[in-house]
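name: query_chain
kind: protein
chains: 1
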Amino acid sequence: MDISRAELEPVVVKFYRQYMQQINDVTYPSGSLLVNPDVQDCIYRYFFDSSRNKYLPPPKYQARILKHIISDIEKACKNPEEDQVSDLLMEHMGILSAIPQQQPFEDAQQAQVHSYFPPLPLDQVGVRPILIKEAQNLLSRGNNVGLRTWEAAQHLAWYLMMERPDLVKKKNVLELGAGTGFLSLLCAGELDARHVLATDGLAHVCESLQTNADLNKANDTLHGHNPPQVQQLDWTDQSELEQVLRDARKDCIRYDLVIGADITYHPDILRPLAELLKTLSDVNPGLQILISSTIRNVHTFSQFTAICQEDLGFRITDVKCIIPEGLRYSGFFHSVATEIKIVRLKR
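structure:
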């Protein structure tokens, strides 16, 4: 469903995009706007009517949002005979309240489809989200790190979408540590890449990645383009790297851009990653590399850049990416409370 066709206030459209992404800190419209019966009708149809939208958030999330909406409407009611909460919203709240609640741990492990709307104008018609099946609150340790979309991926997505779409359009793109496939799907669809290869080192993550590629193809979110190809690539496995390179030669593909988000988090993987980037640069003249990292440990990221710069001869430059505020912040919602840094590498 395209909420922009409902001709609602931009703040309601932003609220919808945040809601469909299932973020915690949504921007609620004012009570004076929510009290309008037409707005309430649209909110029910777009936010809660599963017959119109098969990828609504789970009941627990719906209930939290709807409870807040109802409270704001009740506070804004000035004339009890004219201003009231719609029957449809109240009935749906009753349905949600009757659903047995899962234990918090079970709830956190449950994969749901999240809709990531790109940061296009809130009044633009036909904006399609990237659909990602993931468990955002999964305990992210060990083999689970690739099963959710991280802030650094959304930060790089914002940069590519709003600042440098030319780096992707009609280009060949390779993603390392692709995880859920969010960035690769953006490149393949909205950003109109010629070819996208999404790689990850873990077989079960590649399976999840393929699921998301199939999900977006089936729901026509890729603007008619082919979904990313998915291939396993362990940075320490020479045979897997050689297979990637052989496939590229066979298909006459020279990669123009390599991207990676939140792939520098552990000291043990820094040198294998840097050496892989050198190999890819050697066989793809003019290759551009963009790495986006949440700086949880300054020393770890500095170690990565030192290996690349001092040992392998890369030139490294910081990429500036400032997320706007207010209604101009219209998609790929993510926290930057912890610094996220994007760097460009070139040899």
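note: The radius of gyration is 22 Å.
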